[in-house]
Amino acid sequence: MAGQPLAGAIALVVGGEGGGLSRLGDCEFSDCTGLKELYLPENIVALGEHPLLESGVERLVVGGSLQAVDRLVITRTNYPSLQQLVFLQGPPPVEADGNGGFCWAMDEATAEEITVFYLESQAVLWTEWSACPAVCIESLDDLPPLS
After folding, report:
1. Other Cβ atoms closer than 10 A to 98
2. Which residues pair with 118 in a beta bridge?
3. Which CA distances in Å does 71 have to 24, 135, 137?
4. Which residues contact 3 (CB under 8 A, 6 or more apart)?
5. Residue 104's Cα: distance from chain center in Å?
6. Highest mean pLDDT (candidates 13-27, 52-66, 111-125)
7. pLDDT tens-digit map of 69-115
8. Angle at CA 146, nearest 5°, toward 140 and 147?
9. Global pTM value
10. How many CA atoms, within 13 angstroms, populate the side-chain half-sphere of residue 113?
């Protein structure tokens, strides 16, 4: 099922071979409170600064290997609805200070409200991951339902 959007999720439509979108821009879906699930296909390899800031996204599935993240600081204020982050091709680039990359900036109680999932087939890529707790799943079918 890897590479396939989840049922009911909005998937970004991409161009044909050699074309299409490869980067989600700064604040691209900010304040889109009606957006509940978003699947980023494999060709999205970079994220601008806070592409989903204050959106209604509850589940974000990243289908490709993120090579660059301008700034994505995960806090309850920035992402009030987020419950699940799913990475299908390995972990995102991490920065501890929030000045670039993926930054998990929440207290422990709030962090428990958001779960990061990765596929068992990608487990070797997650051995050094320490930004937040992550759960190994065999396939997208194993994702728990959103509450």
Report:
1. 15
2. 87, 136
3. 12, 23, 27
4. 41, 42, 63, 88
5. 12
6. 52-66
7. 888 878 778 888 888 889 888 888 776 655 667 776 655 556 567 78
8. 155
9. 0.79
10. 15
